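Notes for week 9. Today we move from apo structures to complexes. The key idea is that a small molecule is not decoration. When we ask for a structure prediction with glutathione present, the ligand SMILES becomes part of the input, just like the chain. The input block below holds both the sequence and the ligand string. Read it once before you look at the output, and try to guess where the molecule might sit.
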Amino acid sequence: MYKVIGSLRSRAFRVMWMLEEIGQDYEHIPAAPNSDKARAYNPSGKIPALVDGDAVLTDSVAIMTYLADKHGALTAPAGTVARAKQDAMTLWLIDEFDAILWSAAKHTFALPEDKRVPAIRDSLMFEFDRSAAALSKRLDGPFLMGDQITVPDLLACHCLNWAMGAKFPRTDEKVFAYAKALRERPAFLAAQARGA
Ligand SMILES: N[C@@H](CCC(=O)N[C@@H](CS)C(=O)NCC(=O)O)C(=O)O
C-alpha cells in the first residue's frame, strides 16, 4: 500500500486527492514540515513524500505525474502532443500560482522573522490576480485540458484553495467557481475526510 507523508493542510493533500481519484488505497502519515517524521522520509524536511515499495518519492507534482503515468489516469499519455500541452499547463501553474503563493507564505511565516519583507504581499496579490485572470480566459470547459480531469486541475484547485486560505482577493469569480466544482468531487471530499 502507498504511504503519503505530510499534513493534510499542505501540498500532501494533492497526492492524497490524486490517490483517491485513481482509487488507490494509502496510509496517511500526517507529518509537519521539517519535523523529525518528515526528515525520516525526506532529509530536506519538505513534504509531501510518497512511499511506493522501497522507493521514497518527493515533490507533489512529480508524485502526481508518476501516479498518473503508472495507473494510466488523469493524464494524456507521455510522448503525445496532448501531454506536452498538459505539462506546459502544469509548469505554468507552478510558475504563476504555486511560486507566488509560496513566496507569500515565506514572507508571512516560513522565513526567519528578520528576513521577511511583509510589503511584498501586495505585489504578490497583484501577480496572482493577473494569473487567475489569465487562467480564466483559457478555461472553456469543466477542466483545464478539456472534458477530462488531469493532473493540472488538481494543482490549480489546490492553489486556488490555498489563495483563499491566505486571504488573497477573489476577483475572478469564474476561476473560483471552477475550483468550487472540483471541491465537490467525491475524491476531493474523501481525501479531506482522511484528515478529519
Ligand atoms: N515543490 C515541492 C515543495 C514542497 C514544500 O515546500 N512543501 C512545504 C509544505 S507544503 C514544506 O515542506 N516547507 C518546509 C520548508 O520549505 O522548509 C512540492 O510540490 O512538493
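The chain has a mean pLDDT of 96.
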